[in-house]
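anyone seen this seq b4? input:
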Amino acid sequence: MAFEEIEAIAAAEAEAKRIKAEAEAEAKRMLAEAESTGKAEVEEASKKAQGEILEIKNAAQAQAEAAVQEICSAAENKKAVLRAKAESRCKTAAKLVTERIVNG
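predicted toks r here
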């Protein structure tokens, strides 16, 4: 019986080694799968973030361009008003100078 018991123990040890090897292989496969999935998710999140950054950048650029146009328009209006005032005053000044020269 001792020989049969030794064989049973050896078989149990071999089965335990096989189960342990299978478990290790499964753990490695699961780890590789998790790493692959994680990398894919990180890449997807990075692409999404880059897209969002581009959208925000484009929106900011459009807002900046609109603000520049508004400022330029306001400056042009102010310039026209100032030019009209200057021309009016220039005519008045020329008239006064002419009157003083003529009157004397």
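Residues 2-103 form the longest helix (102 residues). Residues 1-79 form one domain. kinda curious what u guys think
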